[in-house]
Design brief:
The chain has about 325 residues and is of the alpha/beta class. The protein is built from 12 helices and 12 strands. The longest helix is centred in the middle third of the chain and has 18 residues.
Amino acid sequence: MSEPNGNRPLLEVRDLKEYFNIPMGMFRSRPLKAVDGVSFTINKKETLGLVGESGCGKTTVGRTILHLYKPTAGEILFDGKEIKTKADIAEFRKKATMVFQDPYSSLNPRMTVADIIGEPLDVHKLYSTKAERTEKILELMDHVGLNSEHASRYAHEFSGGQRQRIGIARALAVNPEFIVCDEPVSALDVSIQAQVINMFDELQETLGLTYLFIAHDLLVVRHISDRIAVMYLGRMVELADAAEIYDHPLHPYSQSLLSAVPVPDPKVARANKRIVLTGDIPSPLNAPSGCPFRTRCRYATEQCAAEVPAWNEVSKGHFVACHHVADINS
């Protein structure tokens, strides 16, 4: 950590692992490797998009960073300091928070909007008088486009988009620096998705926020992200600037994902060749040896089965984990 403070990443994740022990009967268990050796950094006021198929470990990465799950191994550093002890985690949670995927199940139906948004203020004792608490809640509601008369209502009285705004206001209550956005628009209508994404952009601009934006919709991720990381079966396979990964994907899995993105121009769409993957995603309980993608990769060789590919920087800021990246893209 010899870099000057201004150049230091806000969040640094080193070789993060999250294994869940699954009972197999007769007092035996087997580790499910949900996250298996993931490393990345996020700079201040940057958005890192994290994409991949369902079940690849994206959400687990976000929850493990916030210590909602205890990491099996690896290091998580925030502003240069490792998050390890209970005191570290308590302090970290005043600066880092999460917006959950489902606005229907992540809000308490028995609490008013004011109490939902005010709960983090209560937990962290961030006000001295009731009047100050009310003022902060109304200010947070204004940030996300909710009216003051909404404060006394309950979550079931709102649409999906409004409920997600309540969730975002709750996440902003501790005045965080870093937010994990766990597929925050996937449960919303397309027209509402655009409004919520634009709101995330505006909040980042006005409040100086840093995001880890988890999603499976590549168009949404491209719109909001500065850099994009691609995950497959618990491992990171590619990481680069958003434009670079869209224009020049190097990993065969990234190439397949991006070939499926719809293009609004019919001529371009017809000219595009869809790269269809064969086979099913292996279970993380029985992950293949070597490269996790090899069972569905048309370029796989015996080396892919024998060795896990190294995480290499093939050009400035463009990282790929593939044995044959040079041959595939030559």
